[in-house]
Design goal:
The structure is a homodimer of 410-residue chains.
Chain A lengths: L2 H9 L10 E2 L5 E2 L8 E2 L1 H17 L3 H4 L5 H12 L7 E4 L2 H14 L6 E5 L4 H13 L5 E5 L4 H4 L4 E7 L11 H10 L3 E5 L11 H4 L3 E4 L13 E5 L43 H11 L7 H26 L2 E2 L11 E5 L3 H10 L2 E2 L1 E3 L3 E5 L7 H17 L15
Parallel strand pairs in A: 2-13, 5-6, 5-7, 7-8, 8-9
Antiparallel strand pairs in A: 1-3, 4-10, 9-10, 11-12, 12-15, 14-15
Chain lengths: 410, 410
């Protein structure tokens, strides 16, 4: 595609107007919204109000006056809208890992006689770690059937309690067929648990359409809620009465302010909340989600595919010349909103590219990863990103010693 | 005590200088710092930096550049200093309830053959709820020996795995003798778990001096970290290698960024962290804690006792005339930094008092509760608070219908 064609794409992009709602550093091309979304402009003002007026002035009265108590369900309802759930099926709370722990325990309890948890060995590690911790806690009674993607379906049988998968692979960007896998899961009367870390806000997720049972997801990637934003969890309406909140804190009690010594879970999704909600984080996420209010998710997906298609097209000469290998499926249905390549020098190349003001990220052992957030990226950004990578490769900039030193990143 | 004497107390108060570091609404007397601490002035600027510069501009690079990764241990070390622990024995994470769940499981695992958990039936409900959830999760194998305070010691025997208590009672302000109870706990080779919700930042806690094994606490009360601030947990050094993190998320992994599928806990206190830290909340708490940097905890305690002594003295005529009954022990060793009374019309009286710009709070069924934070309260505030309560009672203001309507508060 030529530069004038790309300019045309931007000129006719119905989502181009959204970019102005984000604070993006001048000259920076940010392809890491799948790790930490950029700052929506409204967030700072919201936090100034929360800190100065709500906390600073109204103090304890704000629990009622400013609706602090309801933030988890209010934010949950906004997320529900993006993931194909009902407003009362989602709540914002804790971290993704803690939520996974809660819903995995609840899901296992629905199939007490079964002792197998199926997952993808390439799942994001925290998902696998949580399953390991749960198994250790329950006396090692479970078989953790962690397999490669191409054998996940075959691994599901009638010994399986829960099939726990992340819809989009954090490294390759591979996207499961949620409907198909959930159907197979249900054929064997097992429970499905989906991690939407790289799905929510990236494209239209359709939890109820797919028949999903449980889900969790992250607030700080495509939802732009800020570093360490509260995460969320989903429990299908049909399971809510039976979903036992083993992490039974007072916010999940049906009457938290009755201060009775006996735990009794809330009737609704609030039962899976635990302690006092993080008001600063919840408020930031609440405002961040407003960016989606006038965005059609189908439209978002359409742009996401165009952006990633363009990126893959422009990268083809670099693949041929410098040995990048595409690991993201080309088929639209099988990928999220990121594009990944392997390259043996991936780490140093990504450091040099970041130094050239194109931020993507690196995932061990050899993956360079580019996330595309349709709300704030244009087609010219994609073109320019590839141009800068071309320069990094052409000049050999990545070979400079400073780019070889590894530091931890998230 | 007379008004001139009270003025003298303020004039010679070495902590009077600290008030200027807090943002306190004009005319308001805030006696609810044991529920939500007031805003330290430095917090807003810190958050503006975290949002504008760190998140908004430096984005994902801030995990290293601005030390986001280290916030949980950095904040933990600051708290350790206030509670008589070593810097590497405390970490800030999650909510108090989630932390209780984590350390209770770890503590129980240290005494696998024992099946009794001792607690105080008047403990803050979430503590009791968490024990109930843990027991249900572990198949109901435990006896939950929840007893009245005066029989806690007698309830400890060699069948007991864990003695789980909140040092200061949230309703009455009664303070356990941590050293004595911990010693009795250890005589029976049981494990002690202390909840410091109403202790940390209120007076010098001496965890290691008392031989405590585990502890948790709250960031938004006397530590002034803001609504829903991250909580903290303590594991005595001698238990850290054996404390199993059943809630095994990636942040507790010994190499979170190696992305290996097998969980292996960090060697240190970080093993009890789980998901991505809440950077906004952690940053606010981090700055809030700086207020304590030049404060001697012994000095803080001294002022706390003077403030509460004065309050009790000034309240005596109101007790006699209006039927308030003191439920907080008078003995300094047996109380925290709050004073509570029962009154059958406590709810309405507190609402009317709040309307008179003295904020305390009410706890069911009949307790009016006043928290005294020595960092931002003066002796004249205590005097004025009692004067306003006198007016509320003398005019019968509390009988107005608007003060009778109950709403949920925290």
């Amino acid at each position: 595609m030529t530069q004038p064609q790309i300019q045309t794409l931007d000129a006719f992009d119905p989502l181009a107007r959204k970019r102005d709602q984000f604070s993006i550093p001048e000259g920076l091309i940010y392809l890491d919204g799948n790790s930490l979304g950029v700052l929506p402009k409204g967030v700072l003002g919201r936090l100034e109000h929360v800190v100065g007026q709500e906390w600073g002035t109204d103090l304890i009265r704000s629990w009622n006056k400013h609706g602090w108590m309801d933030l988890p369900v209010k934010v949950g309802a906004k997320i529900a809208h993006l993931i194909g759930a009902e407003a009362d099926e989602v709540v914002a709370a804790d971290s993704t890992s803690v939520n996974l722990f809660k819903v995995l325990l609840a899901a296992l309890k629905l199939r007490p006689e079964r002792k197998v948890i199926v997952s993808d060995i390439d799942n994001f590690p925290t998902d696998l770690y949580i399953a390991q911790g749960v198994n250790e806690l329950l006396g090692g009674a479970y078989e953790l059937r962690f397999v490669k993607k191409d054998t996940v379906e075959a691994a599901i049988d009638d010994s399986v309690a829960v099939v726990m998968l992340t819809e989009v692979d954090y490294r390759t960007g591979y996207r499961y067929d949620m409907r198909r896998v959930t159907e197979i899961t249900h054929q064997y009367d097992a429970i499905s648990l989906w991690d939407l870390a790289h799905s929510a806000g990236a494209f239209p997720v359709r939890l109820n359409h797919c028949g999903a049972d449980f889900a969790v997801g992250c607030g700080y990637k495509y939802l732009n809620g800020g570093p360490g934003a509260p995460a969320f969890l989903f429990v299908a309406k049909r399971h809510q009465q039976a979903a036992i909140p083993f992490l039974s804190g007072w916010m999940g009690h049906k009457a938290p302010f009755a201060f009775t010594p006996e735990y009794a879970p809330a009737e609704d999704i609030r039962r899976l909340t635990v302690g006092t909600p993080s008001v600063l984080g919840m408020s930031a996420l609440d405002t961040a989600l407003d960016v989606f209010a006038d965005v059609g998710m189908a439209q978002l997906r359409q742009k996401s595919l165009k952006l990633t298609d363009l990126f893959m097209e422009l990268m083809e000469p670099l693949c041929a010349e410098y040995g990048f290998e595409l690991v993201t499926p080309r088929e639209p249905e099988r990928r999220g909103s990121q594009v990944s390549y392997t390259h043996p020098e991936g780490y140093a190349i990504m450091q040099a590219l970041i130094d050239s003001a194109v931020i993507g990220d690196f995932r061990a052992p050899d993956i360079v990863r580019f996330g595309f957030t349709p709300l704030y990226l244009g087609f010219a950004d994609v073109y320019e990103a590839v141009e800068r990578l071309k320069t990094v490769m052409g000049t050999g900039k990545w070979k400079e010693p400073c780019f070889q030193v590894r530091e931890k990143v998230t």
